[in-house]
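Subject: for your reference before the review

Hello V.,

The reviewers asked for a structural picture of the protein, and I figured it would be easier to keep everything in one thread rather than splitting it across files. Below is the amino acid sequence we used in the manuscript, unchanged from the supplementary table.
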Amino acid sequence: MDLGDSPFLQSIDASRLTAIVRQSSRRDTLQVRDWRVQQLGGGAGNPVSAGLYRVEGIGQDRGDQVPWSVILKVLQSPANTGWTDMGEGGDQAHWNYWKRELFVYQSDLHQTLPEGMAAPHCYGVAELPGDIAWLWLEDITDSLGGAWSLERYALAARHLGRFNGLYSTSRPVPDYPWLGMNLIQQWRAAFQPHWQSLPWEHPLVRARYPEPEENSFRRLLMDGERFQAKLNRLPRTVCHGDTYPTNFMSRRLTGGREQTVALDWALVGVGPLGDDLGQFAFGAQFNLGEAGREHAVEALFESYMDGLRDGGCRVDPRLVRFGFAASAALRVGLFQVYLLHEALKQGGAAATETAGRTAASYSFEMAMADAAYELL
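And here is what came back from the structure prediction:
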């Protein structure tokens, strides 16, 4: 079997893997003989992610051959790759605290998800020397092959609303010390040097922000304390924190119902109602294309509100819409600014390619900033 150059992957043995696979297959006598490892991602982007792997093989159980597969997610301290102030320390409320997902799967948070929403089963966790951690997770395959319709995105938005609504009605926000706190405020501080030094008049930046002096998103950044104060007064809830559609899978249940399986809980924390919808709506409208984009965002908001109401949350929709619009503008926009800033530092083809991608994309954050100002 090819386990690559990683000494941690090479430390996987049949005994360790058999205990995991017996859980995943629900066969207490299954024996693992051989397996293979396929890298799915990791090693780029967030430095907490050291690798994502599918481990699969054929087991033997009383003469039966049983195919199996599980996911191994490898976490690490960002200090391992030279990062600082990226969640490598002991501040568990840091937006990127590297052990958070480990603690999430050791808690009961996933046992209390609302109807229609689930998380992958966790078959085991392990902390290894060198500030490395392993998560052994259920291997989830999207029942729609990733080709979601607006109706399916709307259903997932309703499930997100149910999840967020739980902690604004019947259930108190848990006091886990590892829940992220003030994520939007932390992002504003972390990305402030990027947007303050961004050359807004540069042609590649203007490809996304055509009128820098009338750019409502740029104005919102400069007016950030005012918006942050308003966001801080909104009803608080537990948020998934990283709701780009790539972090969701559709699973078909008995009877044909579709369940939304939420992956990657590394940024879970406490935030305002509406915050979880922002990144999800951005990714959904981008995936659905330009046709009906405005209708898509409105449909997702209405479905999210339906999810809140499903759990008995009767908050004023205008407050939720402000939380959605303001946090979406900041969360999505700050990341877009970061991408532009880093591409311009590299110059040449990298800058042109990044600007081309962002220019082709509707400036979602400007539309969200417009809405946030109207609601403020």
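For the response letter, the relevant points are probably these. The chain has a mean pLDDT of 90. The radius of gyration is 22 Å.

Happy to draft the paragraph if you're swamped.

O.
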